[in-house]
# Entry
Amino acid sequence: MEYPKIRLAYRMVIDSTATGAWERYVFEDTYKEYLMQQQLYNHKENPAATFRELLAENPNAEKLHYLTGLAANSYIQQLNGHFYKVPDVLRNNFFPFEGYRLDVVNTDITDITKHKIGITFFSPLLTYLGTINNCYLVSANTAVTEGYDTLMFPVQPQLAICYYQEATISR
# Structure
């Protein structure tokens, strides 16, 4: 029997209340990067203080999501493809990811405490076996087989199915 394939996405928001060392480094470095990069899109004489104001004045400032995210690359690489904040139900395995997207929620060039970013981690393609006891039952094995090694991730806020591919039915 063939099962659907999915990708899971987990989004975390990092702001000035972050307490973990990893989150603090990402927070501080992305703020510094934003301060440097926003100069490309802001007025020199009368700069917009917040990211939202800057976007309203210059739609090209949308590129600041990507440019600011460059500061997080080395921190994301340190995770080695497993996001430690989302364990499986046995707490033996962590959320596997193969890509991410950073977005600037908002920030202010005059106040670091207003800096807020979101990072969305995307899993590799997984075999979706169903939802049991409010947990996604998935397998990293995407080939059709007689049995699957599985992982169970609790359904929770910020964790969602972001891609769904119906199982093909051969006739």
